[in-house]
């Protein structure tokens, strides 16, 4: 951690506890700031809040009282999930109080180079790929995946050194709260329309994403998706850093691209496309972005290939689980809507047995019919939506449609009805809350069932 006196005696409000707020408060207190924590929820039985109080940090909970702003504040560290339309935030902005998010704080104290990754889709997978590639056969230091993936960046930044790398997934919510945030390498995987319930409009959303590069210099790098014309224009108009493109569709000659089914970096072959274990064009784009970062950090091609030979995807996101008697199992429990399941099914060229179902939100599954017709040989359904999804499969003229009660029984039935060479994928197209606390629990149930199937062979 940098030896900084900037925070000494500063009056700081940490708005929103959660994991990042707790660590932010501890860090600021350690750096000599006068810290107050405020959370809208009642924290009377919260052990983290009690710990802060025991250390002498003031905690106010059960609302956002406006009188918090009456005492002078040097800045506010805001939980990214709290919108700028919040009355307390609006009042603070009218008083010209500086508002930042935890990633800005992490960047300010970090001795480690920061590699920041954003985009509408693919942030988490690209971040985890970068971590794997940069740690493969690494002789000094370590790459740490932090940020929006659930690991507070400021927590790791306190302990990491100049020999390490912080690979920081950053959302538009976090980037809106940055002032001097300055990654040495920035990555934008893609930009679509999203989170317009949080942002005032698409323009604000795009501006938030582009904030990742606003403080970069000519000696830094901005890695971007050349297949998106809008993003290409935004980079050309607004980035000072050296721009390094990647493309799934065009043989660029510069940057990272595909030529003759080989992944190229500039004029150098890195690896065959077919050596990537995780399926899908979207994951190929994520890999191209991660390879670009790895090459900029000097990772040898052989290490990149070795890392991808081990990388099976991010858990619950089209994750390769196992191959049992020639049947390959994928866990895509994160697919909690129809669009996500469509993308999953489109990732496979081999025959697919789909396991789907979950919470009944009274939504139509008709949009699945075309992709079921094209990619799926059998469907096994479960949960509250089992009948509706079975009906959609029948309309798509899927050969085999089976209704079961649980994920575990559905997985076993899928295996019974499979042949060597088939793909068996849990991609529910529904939320998990009818039978599980969350999609992670549902995915873990599937993984455990696959393990038991493998053991029984």
A few lines on this structure:
By secondary structure, the chain is α/β, with parallel strands linked by helices. It is built from 16 helices and 20 strands.
Explain what you see.
It holds the Pfam family MurD-like_N. It comes from Alkalibacterium kapii. It catalyses: UDP-N-acetyl-alpha-D-muramoyl-L-alanine + D-glutamate + ATP = UDP-N-acetyl-alpha-D-muramoyl-L-alanyl-D-glutamate + ADP + phosphate + H(+). The chain has 16 helices and 20 strands. By secondary structure, it is of the alpha/beta class. The protein has three domains: 11-100, Rossmann fold, CATH 3.40.50.720; 103-310, UDP-N-acetylmuramoyl-L-alanine:D-glutamate ligase (3-Layer(aba) Sandwich); 319-456, Alpha-Beta Complex (Protein-Tyrosine Phosphatase, Chain A). Strand 12 and strand 13 form a beta hairpin. Helix 5 packs across helix 10 and helix 15 (407-416) crosses helix 16 (439-456). It starts with 10 loop residues before the first strand and ends with a helix. The mean pLDDT is 94.
């Amino acid at each position: 951690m940098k030896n900084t006196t900037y925070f000494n005696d500063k009056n700081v409000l940490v708005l929103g506890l959660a994991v990042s707020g707790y660590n932010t408060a501890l860090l600021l207190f350690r750096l000599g700031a006068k810290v107050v924590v405020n959370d809208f929820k009642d924290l009377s039985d919260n052990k983290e809040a009690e710990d802060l109080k025991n250390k002498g940090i003031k905690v106010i909970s059960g609302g956002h009282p406006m009188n918090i702003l009456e005492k002078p504040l040097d800045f506010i560290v805001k939980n990214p999930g709290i919108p700028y339309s919040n009355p307390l935030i609006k009042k603070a902005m009218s008083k010209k109080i500086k508002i930042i998010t935890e990633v800005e704080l992490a960047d300010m104290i970090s001795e480690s180079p920061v590699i920041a990754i954003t985009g509408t889709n693919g942030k988490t997978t690209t971040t985890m790929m970068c971590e794997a590639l940069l740690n493969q056969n690494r002789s000094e230091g370590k790459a740490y995946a932090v940020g929006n993936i659930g690991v507070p960046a400021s927590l790791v930044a306190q302990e990491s050194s100049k020999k390490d790398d912080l690979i920081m997934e950053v959302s538009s919510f976090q980037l809106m709260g940055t002032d001097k945030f300055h990654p040495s390498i920035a990555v934008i995987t893609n930009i679509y329309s999203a989170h317009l319930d949080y942002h005032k409009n698409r323009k604000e959303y795009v501006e938030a994403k582009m904030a990742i590069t606003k403080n970069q210099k000519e000696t830094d790098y901005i890695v971007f998706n050349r297949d998106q014309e809008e993003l290409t224009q935004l980079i050309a108009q607004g980035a000072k850093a050296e721009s390094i493109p990647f493309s799934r569709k065009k043989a660029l000659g510069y940057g990272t691209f595909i030529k003759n089914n080989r992944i190229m970096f500039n004029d150098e072959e890195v690896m065959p496309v077919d050596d990537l274990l995780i399926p899908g064009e979207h994951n190929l784009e994520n890999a191209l972005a991660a390879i670009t970062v790895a090459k900029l950090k000097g990772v040898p091609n052989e290490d990149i290939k070795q890392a991808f030979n081990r990388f099976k995807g991010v858990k619950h996101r089209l994750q390769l689980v196992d191959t049992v008697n020639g049947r390959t199992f994928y866990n895509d429990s994160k697919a909690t809507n129809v669009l996500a399941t469509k993308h999953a099914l489109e990732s496979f060229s081999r025959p697919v047995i789909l396991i789907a179902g979950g919470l009944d939100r009274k939504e139509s599954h008709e949009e699945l019919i075309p992709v079921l017709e094209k990619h799926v040989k059998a469907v096994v359904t479960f949960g509250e939506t089992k009948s509706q999804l079975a009906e959609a499969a029948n309309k798509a003229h899927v050969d085999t449609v089976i209704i079961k009660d649980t994920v575990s029984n559905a997985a076993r039935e899928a295996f019974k009805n499979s042949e060597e060479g088939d793909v068996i994928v849990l991609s529910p197209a529904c939320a998990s809350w009818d039978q599980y606390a969350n999609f992670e629990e549902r995915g873990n149930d599937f993984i455990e069932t696959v393990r038991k199937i493998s053991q029984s062979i």
